[in-house]
C-alpha cells in the first residue's frame, strides 16, 4: 500500500537477527517524534498525518519484535505473497504437533500447574531452536522451501503458546 | 468573552504564553479537576475549599443541583437524583436492566437505544447528566485559573469500550469542553507517580474505584510510559461492596427484597458508612428502621471476597498478557477510594509480594496525572528534553461478524494505539452486491457474547461468483481509543466508511438537540458562541503555522511557497479582527490547504532527524 518497509522505518536492513532491546529504544525515540500528542495544537492535517505515521510505526514495531511475524514478513519481502493458511506438507512436524496437543489436553484434565510451567519452558526451547535454524537459511534462495517450512512451524508454536496462556487462564478459575 | 491576543504580522507568538488546560477525573462516586500551577499539579478546590465533587446530579423543576447537596437528597428524592451515572454511560437499556434491581430510576427509551432517566425536567440521558458534572468542574477551574480553558484531558477507565468512551466525549462536548485527550485512569495515575518519583521499570496500577476496576501494567523508561497490558471489569467497584452489605442487611433484618427507591437508597447509604468505618474499626453498627445489627470486619471481608478474587484474577491475566512474570513487577500503585479497604491492600500486597504505594491520595492521583498530560498537550512543557509520552493500548479486541455468527478479530486487545489494520473478506453468495459490516468488541468467539459497536453496509459491489470479490475492511483507532472503520471493494473501488457511532450512543439528532438546549440556557447566544469557536480555531491554526514557519520555514519552503503561505496568514489575521464568522472559517480552510504539503514535509523531516546520525547496521548483530 505504498508504505515504507518496516525495517526502513527503523533505518535497518532486512534481517532476522535483531537486538530487541535496541529496537525498543529506537521505537520509543521515533514514537516520541510522531505521536499525535506531539501535535495536539497543530493543524488538523498535521494531526491526521501524525496519526497515520504513529499507526504505521506501531505496526512495524509489533511485526519486528515478534519472531514468527518478522520471519513471515521477511519471506514476503523476498518472495511471492504467502497465503495465510496452507496445507502443510511436513509429516514429521505434524506428528510432533499432535504430541504437543495431547500433552496440553492431559495437563488441562489433571489441572497440573507445575506441569504447565515445564511445558512452557520446553516450548520456549523449541522456539529458540527454530529461530536459530530460520536465521541461517531465510536469505538463501536455494533454501526458500526450508525457510517457509520453518516459518510455518514458528507460527504453529506461537499459536500453541497462546493456547497455553488460555489454559493458564482456565486453570486460574 | 476573552479577547484573543494577536501578534504583529511576522512576529512570532509569545513562546511562554501559558495556555490553561485541566485534567478531569469523572468518577463514578466522586469527580475532581486539577491543573498544573507554578510547576505543580494540584486539585482545584471550590469556593468552600472542597476538592471532591460528589458525582450526584439532582434535577429540580427550574434548576440543576450538582455535588454534595444532591447526594444528600438521594433518599428523599430518588427519582430526580442521579448517582453513579458513569455506570450507565454507553450502555443499552438491556445492560441497564441487568444492573436493574439496584437502580431506582424510571427509564424511558430515547430515539437511540440509550436509556433515558425520566426526571422532573423530562428525560435525561446519562451523557447529559455527566455533562452537568463537567460543567460545574469547568466553571470551578475557570474561576480559579482566571480564564477560558484551552481544553481538558478527561480520564476514563482503561477497560471502557468504544461506546463508553464516545459517550464520555459527547458529555464533554455538551459541557463546552474541548477534549485534548481521553486518558486511561491507570495511565494517569502512573504519570502522577512516575514523574513524582522518577521511577523506571515495570509498574502495576491497581485501580478500584466506585464502579469500575482497572489493572494496568506499564513500563517506564525516561519519560515514556508504555502500557504493556491492561484489563479489568467495568462493572466492579466500591459500589458493589455497598450492595453486598445492603444485601446482608436485608437478609439479617428479614426485609423483603422488594424495597421502594427511597428505602433502597437509605440502605445503601448506611452500608457505605459502615464500609468506611470498617477501614479503621473492627466492627460497625448498623440500623435500619427497627432493626439493629453489627457487622464485623471479618464478616465484611467474607462478603467482598468474591469481588476481590475477580480483581486478582484480572491482575494475573494482565501480567500474562504483558508477557512478564509476577516477580518482574517492581512497584504496585493503589488508585481509587476503594483501595482504602484494608483487606484490598493486603490481598494485593500478597499477590505481588510487595507493599503497594499509597503516597498520593488515591482519590486525587488520577486527576493530578491527567492535569500533567493536559499541560503538556496544551504546549506548556516544550523543549525540556525528556518530554512526557504515553503509549497506551486498546483494552478489548476489535473485530467483525463473519458467517455463522462468529467474531473475527482484526485488532487484538493490548495493541498499542494509534493503530490501523486491514483485513480482507469476501462474498459468500454468487452475485452478492452488498455486504453488512458488523463491528464488534470483546474477547469471546460468539458475537452474542461480544458488544455490538456498529453496523453499516457496503453497497454496489459488482456481481461476481461467491468468493471472487475482495473487500478490505480497515480499522483505525486513534490516540483517544476511538474507532473508525472503512470498507472498500478492491476491484471496483466501491467504498463505505463510518466514524463508529456506537449502537448505544446518542444519535446525531439527539446531540444536536442537546447542544441547542445548552446554548439556549447559556448566557451568551448561539451566534456569539459559534463566532468564538471559529476565532479559537483560526487562532490555533495561526499559532501552529507561525511556530512551524519559524522552525522550518527556511529549510523546507521555497520562496514562492513561503509567499503564498504568508499571504493567507495575513488575510486570516485581518479577518480575525472583524466578526464575520463564515469568512474566518473559509479563510482558515484556505490556510490549511496551502500549508498541507509543508505539514507533510515537516513530519517526514522529524522522522528523518530522529534517525539521523546512526549507522545502518547499528542494531543488527
What does this protein structure show overall?
- The complex is a heterodimer of chains A (173) and B (621).
- With 173 residues, chain A is an all-alpha fold.
- The model of chain A has no long low-confidence stretch (mean pLDDT 87).
- Chain A has seven helices and no strands.
- Chain A starts with 5 loop residues before the first helix and ends with a helix.
- Chain A has helices at residues 6-9, 20-34, 44-65, 67-78, 91-110, 113-137, 144-171.
- Chain A is 73% helix and 0% strand.
- Chain B has 621 residues and is α+β, with helices and mostly antiparallel strands.
- Chain B is built from 14 helices and 27 strands.
- In chain B, the strands form seven sheets. In chain B, strands 1, 2, 3, 4, 11 and 12 form a six-stranded mixed sheet that branches. A five-stranded mixed sheet of chain B has the order 18-13-14-15-19, sandwiched between helices. A four-stranded antiparallel sheet of chain B has the order 21-20-23-24, with no helix packed on it.
- In chain B, helix 3 crosses helix 4, helix 6 (238-253) packs antiparallel against helix 8 (297-321) and helix 12 (526-556) packs parallel to helix 14 (581-611).
- Chain B is globular.
- Chains A and B meet through helix 2, helix 3 and helix 7 of A and helix 8, helix 10, strand 19, strand 22 and helix 12 of B.
